[in-house]
Design brief:
The protein is an alpha/beta fold. It has helices spanning 2-12, 59-72, 115-124, 165-181, 219-228, 244-247, 277-288, 301-313, 320-325, 339-355, and strands at 21-31, 40-44, 49-51, 76-81, 98-106, 130-138, 150-153, 185-190, 196-204, 209-213, 232-236, 252-254, 268-272, 294-297, 326-327. The chain has three domains: 2-113, no CATH class; 125-204, no CATH class; 209-355, NAD(P)-binding Rossmann-like Domain (Rossmann fold). The strands form three sheets. The chain has a six-stranded parallel β-sheet, sandwiched between helices. A five-stranded antiparallel β-sheet has the order 3-2-1-5-4, sandwiched between helices. The protein is elongated, with a radius of gyration of 24 Å. The two termini are 23 Å apart.
Length: 373
């Protein structure tokens, strides 16, 4: 989401009377690749760009491809194959052993539904998970849709552009599968009439939202790191106790009495870090009553278990489902010592939890880092 926000910002700052631009999007990956599907790169006609589609090895060629798309006013799909020892193939010798499809779309600034405007509309809506269907390839015989078009899926009615109920039902079935899996993926289908289409079905969640419930000095390095990652940061603390430096970093600061005013959803992590036992104990039932999927408790395990035991004695027994949402101690075991290292441990632990990973060393992983098609 951080990359998309940067691209939108650069797009909004373009002088659209004198400049042109194209958007490059990774829409399919086979094997290994530094970037995955959904990676984007905004390329201006003066050669500057924002974002990226690789670790830097393909960007040079991508600049040329984007300019060609701008000059021809036509979207193009380019395949980069780093798995073959072809001396004429861009990316050869990288050792990535992957095949990457990148869609280059010239941007029509007069089109209110161009690719960037669609992304912008997603961010303007209130922390929804969006499903975008990008048309990446079409055989002959299609009047609509067009290659490069993005369909913002809200329901079956959005697929009427295909003008064929059989196709629409097949596409919707695949969309529902990707939504259930919570994974973006390319999709190819062929109808009985011989027409073919290639799509990129993208599941676009909102950014991670971290709520820090505390005001001590360690809130500062955590806020800085989380913002660098592109996450949303909220702080709950008595306003008079909040360091002035934090006010320029956090997205919002709320007094404890305003906790219920925060937008909390399944993409939210809440960290109890007041450094006051009674405060954290009082806040735990409150945060468990939200839909946050990650609740972290700063401090040693024995401290958290004591809080749970006391709450149980007071009549509030935590269910297995509630215990599963609590991370105590929170963070990964990296030997963190100072506040900055502790912030790194926390950030890595939160990212691992939201990704369904255990945060162990990659060298010990037997399967590929990312699922392979």
């Amino acid at each position: 989401m951080k990359e998309i926000k940067a691209i939108i910002k650069a797009y909004d700052e373009l002088d659209k009377a004198t400049q042109q631009a194209a958007l490059a999007t990774v829409v399919r990956v086979e094997g290994s690749s530094y970037r995955r599907t959904g990676a984007r790169m905004l390329v201006m006609d003066n050669g500057t760009w924002i974002g990226g589609i690789s670790g830097g090895c393909l960007e040079g060629d991508a600049l040329k491809r984007a300019r060609l798309a701008i000059n021809s006013s036509r979207p193009t799909l380019i395949t980069y194959d780093t798995s073959e020892d072809d001396p004429h193939q861009i990316g050869v010798g990288l050792g990535c052993n992957g095949i990457i499809d990148v869609l280059f779309c010239p941007l029509d600034f007069d089109d209110p539904e161009n690719q960037i405007e669609i992304l912008k509309s997603c961010l303007q809506e209130n922390r929804e998970t969006h499903t975008l269907v990008t048309i990446t390839g079409l055989s002959d015989g299609w009047a609509l849709p067009k290659i490069g078009q993005i369909i913002k899926y809200k329901g079956s009615g959005n697929l009427s552009v295909f003008a064929d109920r059989t196709y629409e039902e097949e596409i919707e079935k695949q969309i529902q599968y990707q939504i259930a899996e919570n994974k973006s993926a390319p999709y190819h289908f062929e109808g009985r009439d011989g027409r073919k289409a290639d799509l990129f079905i993208e599941i676009l969640p909102p950014e991670i939202h971290v709520i820090l419930m505390g005001h001590q000095y360690d809130v500062y390095p955590m806020s800085r790191l989380f913002k660098e990652l592109g996450w949303r940061v909220s702080i709950v603390a008595e306003l008079i106790k909040v360091n002035a430096m934090i006010k320029g970093i956090a997205d919002e600061i709320r007094a404890p009495a305003e906790f219920s005013d925060l937008i909390i959803d399944e993409h939210t992590a809440i960290i109890l870090m007041s450094h006051d036992y009674k405060t954290d104990k009082k806040n735990l039932p409150k945060v468990l009553n939200t839909s946050a999927s990650y609740i972290g408790m700063l401090g040693p395990r024995v401290r958290s278990e004591r809080i749970w035991a006391e709450l149980n004695q007071e009549g509030l027994t935590l269910s297995d489902a509630e215990i599963a949402r609590i991370y105590a101690p929170l963070g990964l075991d990296i030997g963190a010592v100072n506040p900055e290292e502790i912030a790194l441990s926390l950030a890595a632990g939160i990212r691992a939890a939201f990704s369904g990973r255990d945060g162990s060393l990659l060298r010990n992983r037997k399967s590929p880092i990312h699922p392979r098609n």
